[in-house]
Design goal:
By secondary structure, the protein is an alpha/beta fold. It has 2 domains: 134 residues, 3-Layer(aba) Sandwich (Rossmann fold); 122 residues, Rossmann fold, CATH 3.40.50. The protein is built from 10 helices and 10 strands. Strand 6, helix 6 and strand 7 form a beta-alpha-beta unit. The two termini are 12 Å apart. It comes from Pseudohalioglobus lutimaris.
């Protein structure tokens, strides 16, 4: 998995930009470039918003982004910025990620109530469901001295897409071990004993020591949340199923179900 270009979503609602801070840190370590994307959320039409006014506001917003990027660029990281005006800014992020050939999207995240999640599609959900590259949702700013990572996979589903997703999750986890000297754990949940995975095979696939491979009975989201809290994980990596519409509302996916139950960062792999 190549990580050459990051797209970072600017959060205009607060001064602190944890996603930008984390992306800059990782980009500096691995030599990736960084593209900061901002979106003015609103209706372009209206008597007070002619073409020149829109151009002025876009320019002012981009100047703010460039000011945030200046110290990052001074450290030798290749940076760029972009601003759009779009009512559906989360969809604009998805398009920008594809247009800029981003290898990963970084976005600051915060906890939503159950009501907020049910009554409207949050930007986090939209990105997870629609983005074609991995999405890293950042909830904290300072990474621990030794990151502890929990990767959730399922080797009981033997279809090509799931096998490929498992391999992508494991490959990325191995890369983190090499680049960040992280402590990686793998968990495989199973709903009943008929689907209990082969422990020996899971150890072989992950390449991890036996004490870092966990097989637990239960629903994936509940098991992953429980294990992440028990291990005090700083990052949880999970696969993403691209559901939309009624299926997404009723069933969601594991990434969505765990997002507001964890205080750590979450990486959703497509």
């Amino acid at each position: 998995m190549e990580l050459n270009k990051f797209l970072v979503v600017h959060d205009p609602t607060r001064e602190a930009q944890p996603a930008l801070e984390r992306a800059a840190l990782i980009a500096g370590e691995i030599g990736a470039s960084l593209h900061l994307f901002g979106c003015i959320h609103g209706d372009v039409s209206g008597p007070d918003r002619g073409a020149e006014e829109v151009k002025r506001l876009l320019g002012e917003h981009r100047a703010k982004l460039d000011a945030l990027l200046a110290p990052i660029a001074a450290n030798g990281i290749i940076t760029s910025s972009e601003v759009e005006w779009d009512k559906g800014w989360h969809h604009a992020v998805v398009r920008a990620a594809a247009r800029n050939h981003a290898d990963m999207v970084f976005k600051s995240s915060f906890r939503h109530s159950v009501g907020q999640r049910l009554l409207k599609s949050t930007s986090d959900w939209t990105l997870i469901r629609e983005c074609l590259c991995p999405v890293l949702l950042i909830k904290d700013t300072a990474p621990p001295a030794t990151p502890r990572i929990l990767a959730g996979i399922d080797i009981s589903v033997r279809t090509a897409p799931y096998e490929k997703l498992n391999e992508q999750i494991l490959a990325f986890s191995r890369r983190l071990v090499e680049s960040e000297k992280a402590e990686v754990h793998v968990v495989n949940a199973f709903p009943d004993f008929r689907l209990k995975p082969d422990r020996k095979k899971l150890i072989e696939l992950s390449g991890l020591a036996s004490d870092r491979v966990h097989i637990k009975l239960g629903e994936p989201d509940k098991v992953i949340v429980s294990e992440a809290k028990r291990l005090d994980a700083s990052l949880v990596i999970v696969g993403n199923s691209h559901r939309s519409g009624l299926a997404a509302l009723l069933h969601g996916n594991t990434a969505e179900k765990i997002l507001d139950k964890l205080d750590c960062n979450v990486l959703a792999m497509p």
